[in-house]
Structures are given as structure tokens and as C-alpha cells.
Amino acid sequence: MRGKEEIKKTIEEGKAVLGIEFGSTRIKAVLIDEDKSPIASGSYDWENQLVDNIWTYSMEKIQNGLQGCYQDLVKDVEAKYDVKLTKFAALGVSAMMHGYLAFDENDKLLVPFRTWRNTITEEASEKLTELFSYHIPQRWSIAHLYQAILNGEEHVKDVCYITTLAGYIHWKLTGKKVLGNGDAAGMFPIDIATKKFNEKMMDQFDELTAEKNFPWKIREILPEVLVAGEDAGVLTEEGAKLLDPTGTLQSGIPMCPPEGDAGTGMVATNSVAVRTGNVSAGTSVFAMAVLEKDLTKPYEEIDLVTTPAGDLVAMVHCNNCTSDLNAWVNLFREFAESMGMTADMNQIFGTLYNKALEGDSDCGGLLAYNYFSGEHITGFNEGRPLFVRKPDSKFNLANFMRVHLYTSLGALKTGMNILLKKELVALDRMMGHGGLFKTKGVGQRILAGAIDTPVYVMETAGEGGAWGIALLADYLVKKEDKESLTDYLENKVFHDAVGTGMDPVAEDVEGYEKFMETYAKGLAIEKAAVENL
User: Fold this and answer.
1) What's the predicted TM-score (pTM) here?
2) What are the angstrom distances between the C-alpha of 463 and each of 55, 268, 342, 466, 501?
């Protein structure tokens, strides 16, 4: 780590790089130095609103959030290094993916921003999936556009440009209507050979909507798609004033292609190489695996996106992960307190998680479901947390904890089985991050057994997506000739990262498969609980 004076000099000379990411509840800015290490940060809390049954953020809130987050960073830099921010070596913006921002010829927003959270496009999603033979999730921009067409919405004829949140902010800062590959892949399917929007599918969409006689064709209203490292414009004078209304920030700063939060998450966990991926496991859980080739057919359980470099990624997303596990741990805390013991949550989690490793590899015949909410991968619109056992099951604490760890990844394994067993996807390693992996070696071992793949956990979770987009901005200006994003991350960012790898234990793999047989059969019990409780 560099000293304070050295970092101050880096900032003063405009050699630091800035990344800003718009999350669903927080906007975060991270400033990095020439070592790629975070040296300052800023944040701004915000919430979406439900307006006319549409989840949205207003344009005013987006602007206030951008400026508020940047000003918080300015304060942090001044407090730590006593220096004013005037310029950067590069800048990048990322945000939550998908959704629908539509503008007319005068750059006026036609309808309030429809975020990824809205589930109002089921008909469009199903029809486009059938048309393209390619899974189009409800949250994708093209599903929102087609649903608006199906609904006969008046604004559609006036559309001149549609984009994502990151694409919108980047446009306002640079004047460029462009989008990074990963974010673009959540708008419309990408052709991985060209790393652009799929030409055949754009033609199919135009044929589908031809009878409407709109004055636009789909390729005319989508952003230009760029891969990581490509020129995405510079911060204009208007953009500099938008970001920093005080006028202190200079224009002319190079900007990397705007990205989605899935892509920046892959960068921040060094998971952009083919045959690698990452699993984020907290309240919900998702896995992303970078593929060597296209899947043989579409699957409702699997979304296809891309890395910022344009490689195809299969994503398995599940609504439920650790909530039920945490609820049981809290029950044990309550017991400990009732017995007059001092209950340290880290110790309780650590003790109970490690106890699970003493259990039978198949959980001794115990069964649990962690469904606080519905789980689309197994066909549930609602959920009921359940714990079930037979009279002759081996009911002890070790098996009890093990079954709740297993089931936290049960729906994920259902989706991953499609990739690993039906599509024969090869994975060399997966990176685990999130609350499930906090107790060293436990969640990591359970995941390795579930997907029969080595799992790595870094000692630091990094700074998340804002750090990821800062690295993409750094890559734009620091990459060597023909240096891939994978090589840049491997050699210049994560070369001395401290982490631990764990290979799957054969007994765990076998036991997990046995558990999943019971899990699949027991879904009828979960269904009955939803219907009767």
C-alpha cells in the first residue's frame, strides 16, 4: 500500500481512476490509485418508488444521486489527503441492468423509467422467447418495449432511443449513445461471434412489428455496443458540470463503456475468463459461468448475458438463500441467551456452521426448504420455509445444520445441473462471495460439493461493483497492446490477491446428489404447504 503523500500526488496529478455504480438502494463511488487499490469512496442512499404500479426512479433522483455520491467522494478525498479533485486518468459508470428508458427526438423521457424490478412483461417475454428460440427474461429492455407495443401504448411511435440506467448516465456525461457488452446483453440478445446485437433477431423483431408501421427499426433505437477497453468518449463540459456543479472538475476525461452490475461483479471477483465464474450467496443467490460456446437450446431457468469483454455467460438466479438458515441460527442465539450465556453471533455462526461438517454427507435423510418467497427454478410463485424428517432419519445437530446449508443452495443446484449435466459445461473454478462464505471453509466446501467444482474465496470481497467499473476504466487507459481483460485482471490486479481454493470432496458430491433426489421428491410437500398454510 502506498503512503499518504504518494497517494496525494497521484490524485493531484490526475492519475487516479474513478468508478461510480448505481445499485438499487445505494450509489457508490470508488477512487483507485496506480496499484488498482481503493484510496477514497463516496456514497448516496436512495430508494425506488412505486408510481402507478411501476417501480421507478425519477430523473431528478438520478441526477441528485449522481451529484450527491460524487460530492461525498470529494469530501472523503479532502478529509484524507487535503486535496481538491480536478481531474482523473479515466472514469466509468455502471448501474443495475435491464429496464426501460425511452426517449423521443428531443431527448425527452417518454414514460417513467421502468426498472428491472417490474414483472409486467410476461406476455412479451414468452412471445419473444418463442420467436428467437432464446430465453428473454421479463426484465430485459426488449421485453419492456414489446410489452408496450402489445399494450398499444401511445408513446411507442415516438421512440428514438432506448437504453439502460448506466447507458443514460454515460450519455449525459459524454454525449455518446453507447453501452458496454455486459449491460447490452440485458437489453437484447448478443451475437458472441460479432460481440454486437444479434442481426437475425433484430430482423425477426422488425418483421414481428412491421404491421404497426412505426417510423423506426429496432437497430436504429438501440445503443452502439462496445467491449471493455474500447473508446466510449470523454467527459464533456456539460457532463463535468452535471457531475460536479461546483465547476471544479475538468472535462476531457476518457470514459470506458458503461456497464451493468453483473459485469462489474465479474470484474471485481476476477471471474471473466472462460471456464470460470462466481457465486454470490446472501439473502438471494446467483451463479454466473463464462461459457466456451452457446447452449444447445433456451432454458427458462437460465439467463444468458456476457462479460464486459463479450464472452457468453450463463446466469442462474434464485430468490432464496440464507434467510431461513439465519432464522435458525437466531433461534439458537435465543436459546443461548435464555440459558444465561453471552451470545456472540460470529461465534454462534462459526460453531454451528462447522458442526455441519460433522454431519452425514446426505444429511441423514433430513429435508428442508428455505423458500421465504417463490422460486421460479422449481416452479413456485410463493414459498413456505419447511423442515421435514422421517421417524428413522438421523436427527442430530450436525445433520440439522448441514441440511439447512445444503438447501440454501438447492434451487441453485437445480439450475446448475442443467449447465453441468445437460449442457456439459466445463468449469475450472468458481469464486464464492457473500455472507454464506463468511465462516471460513464451510460454505465454500458445501458449494464445491454441490457443483463438483473447485471454489475459491478471497480474503477481501473487494469494493464490489464500483471498484469493478473503476478497474474497467483503468483497463481502458492502462492496457497494453492486445492485452485481454482476463490477462489484465490476472496479472495486474489479482496477481498477489490472498485467497483459498477448495476442491470438491468426493463424499460431499455423492451425498449432495442423494440429498437432491429427496429434495426433488419433496417439492410436493412444499406445494401442499403453499396451498394449505
Assistant:
1) 0.90
2) 27, 8, 33, 7, 21
